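Hi X.,

You mentioned you wanted examples for the new student's onboarding notes, showing what a folding record looks like when two proteins sit in one file. Here is a clean example. The first protein comes first, with its sequence line followed by its structure tokens.
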Amino acid sequence: MTSTRSARPERERPVPAVTDTPALARRLGTGDAIVLGLASMVGAGVFAVFAPAAGAAGWGLFAGLALAALVAWANATASAQLAAAYPTSGGTYVYGRERLGEWWGFTAGWGFVVGKTASSAAMALTFAGYALPGQGWTQRALAVAAVLALGAINYLGVTRTALAARLLVAFTLACLAVVVVAVLLRQPSPAGTPVVDLPGGPYGVLQSAGLLFFAFAGYARIATMGEEVRDPRRTIPRAILAALGIAVVVYALVGWTLVAALGPAGLAASTAPLRDAVLAVGLEPLAPLVQAGAAVASLGALLALLAGIGRTALAMARNGDLPRGLAAVHPRFRSPHRAEVVIAALAAAAAAMLDLRGAIGFSSFGVLVYYAIANLAAFTQSGDDRRWPRALNVFGVVGCVVLAATLPWPSVVAGAAALCVGVVARLVRRRPGRAA
């Protein structure tokens, strides 16, 4: 059955500032889009976030997970609604410019670029931590090498990116299924642990939600790549909501498995929660599988992250908000090759210097600002472009602001400082008399 919405012609919005820049090729279907969204989420959510969330909230991490999922759902509907109307590269950077004004778009785009570059460093460090347990320069070197290798894959075009993401996600989900079933068969629930244990109180729950939001932030990755999706008006909304729904189920199962095996306190103290979980219930033979699954999942998240940042940088460069040379599209691979090279270099440098948990908080702040602007932009849509009630946009804005404000204060300070640096740099770059 064909709806009246899908029968209308798509609204292809031209890129305004650099008309001689070639467009990217539409090569991604619905399955590819879902896989890219899952690749962005599963690595981050399962292997990097549950420990700090448990440290902030104890048993309240499940309330934090539910709150993060609700905010993510509101943000996902906003992103899906906007992406259907503006099927081009850049995500909320483009939506903010079109619906709210250029400064709103710039703030969203800059928050995304700096926040997701920190996310890329976090995923590279997570990969290195599982693939090469221990500390020292060799682990950092492996993280840097991972960033550069996956940057090279993205350079070769989006079809290579989608194929690699599909393989990585399939292996990750298979590993997680084995571990979750095995651990829960041994220990289905935490024995003797009180369910009501909120060491940080309501504030701790909110802080855990802000940290766990980091895990959900990949659901709209495909919106930043909207210029490469076939039939974007239908494909992007379906892919965003499907990827988010699958991820919520996966996170809930893995979170319960970790608490069942380790308890909230043990989970909070763990640097490799899934590995520690299988060891805690006497499943030592599964430890290598966990290490492999974690390493592969982190690579999948890193791959999709770099691709999303590259497309946002492309859109910003087209409008002069980043150096215009980054708007180049490779004549053969149809990828934003210069942006991919620069982003990979910056992410590699971040992986060489940043701390994992600090990178997660910093990233969450930047991305929450990004999605707050997405909700504001979606609120202005009306008529046939509106697919969900405005109340969801209001909830999304409030949720993003609250979660950003309750992150660990160093992350809030660093994130606000990074946004200020971007704003000041844009003010300096603007010539007198030029439109904002």
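Then the second protein repeats the pattern, sequence line and then tokens:
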Amino acid sequence: MTDQPALARRLGIVDAVVIGLGSMIGAGIFSAFAPAAAAAGAGMLVGLAIAAVVAYCNATASAQLAAQYPKSGGTYVYGRERLGDWWGFLAGWGFVIGKTASCAAMALTFAAYAVPSAWQRPVAVAAVLALAAVNYRGVTRTAGLTRVIVSAVLIALAVVVTACLVGGRPDPAFLSGPWLGEQGVYGLLQSAGLLFFAFAGYARIATMGEEVRDPQRTIPRAIVLSLGIAVAVYAVVGVTALLTLGPARLATSAAPLADAVAGGSWGWAVPLVAAGGAMAALGALLALIAGIGRTTLAMAREADLPRWLAAVHPRHQVPHRAEIALAVVVSLLVLTVDLRSAIGFSSFGVLLYYLVANLAAFTQPTEHRRFPRWLQVLGAAGCLLLVATLPWQAVVAGTGMFALGIGYRVIRLHLQRTH
């Protein structure tokens, strides 16, 4: 693959932070608080804190590894380098398959906000193809469009908070508990799992390691900065929604932020909230396409996916075949399957992805360490704990997904040895 053009280092610290925010402040912030409240009531704020701690541990592992291995592919590369080929494959497979499902879910979420139900599937496909075209044109265009989307979403969220606190009827009594719902500690951990996956997009920066200027300095800073901003935004919006609706109403809301705004005197702002939800879904989808494309590129370079996917466009310097293939697969999924409830399936793969990241970071020698090892131990334990809270259907589907990937690689290695 030495004749392939290289990816271009065009992203600075601001671009990297924006791409991270585009991945984290996505459609989840407009919908994740309802199931979190259903699981834990007012304790969803404790769940948010737990999710933030686990995310921080995972983020420090990703940041430390990205500084040592500034290549495309993220934990797929780190797992191979630190733990062995099979660990890297499991991380990469979980990321690509899980996040491909997330792409379809984000496209359908965008369409649900933007158009009537009869138009949702074709509009979702159009969104996938349009954003894949943006990614195809180069990473600077991806970063530029993400900056516009993130700005629009943050403005919409500012309107939500202002409308609720100024035009609504916030009640501090809603924050007084009970802090454990009917499911007790299990519900608390389940709320943490739901909220974790709403803002677990910081790895997107690491997967684009070959396109960041001064990666040893830029990537760790961007990961920690973008995660810190995202957690702060989620905390402010979550407290506001809880103050306005209360845990019972929040738990049953299909559109919690829109309902929170509609209940006050700023009802005119509800369309702005819907527009913000649509933009957030687009931002998450755009970042997902970029991240999956780079991980697919890395796996194809090592023949863990078909090698023809490793091509880099000579002019735009992006993994164009990987992104075209992804757009086709996601479009087919959007047209044939309802994946808006696919978070559990996606979560299974992503949690194992971060488990490998923590294990890989734990093995790094002193000269490459930026954070203490106990953070990686806590991060790995957190990933396993959150996996245990997933619905059994998600665990079964995720296990089947990994069995398929393992079978594929075993057959490929066997054929490679016999030829």
